[in-house]
Amino acid sequence: MRKSVIEKAKKYAHNQSISLSKMIEIYLESVTAPREKEVGTTPLVESLSGVIELESDFDYKKEYSNYLTEKYK
Q: Does the pLDDT at position 46 exceed 90?
């Protein structure tokens, strides 16, 4: 591994207030974890899931289109 990559990683870890070994551990954990959930779903998104209850016939595309139409009139 090139020394510049290691130095950049150390600087990044320091800026994130985490040790380089912990950062690598988290990375390895994330790439080896089972892929049961949709890729890209973050813990924040998961925590917000189900917060809003919508009617079963709610058409979000239509509502979003209406929103944009009003916004850019």
A: no
Number of H helices, E strands in the chain: 4, 0
User: Domain tally for the chain?
Assistant: 1
Instruction: Tally Cβ neighbours within 10 Å of residue 23.
Output: 15
Calculate the dihedral angle through the C-alpha atoms of 7, 12, 16, 19, rounding to the nearest 10 degrees: -30
Q: Looking at the domain assignment, is residue 12 inside a domain? A: yes
Q: For residue 52, what is the DSSP state?
A: S
Q: What is the pTM of this model?
A: 0.42
H-only helix segments in 1-73? 3-15, 20-32, 43-48, 60-71
Three-state secondary-structure class, residue 53:
coil
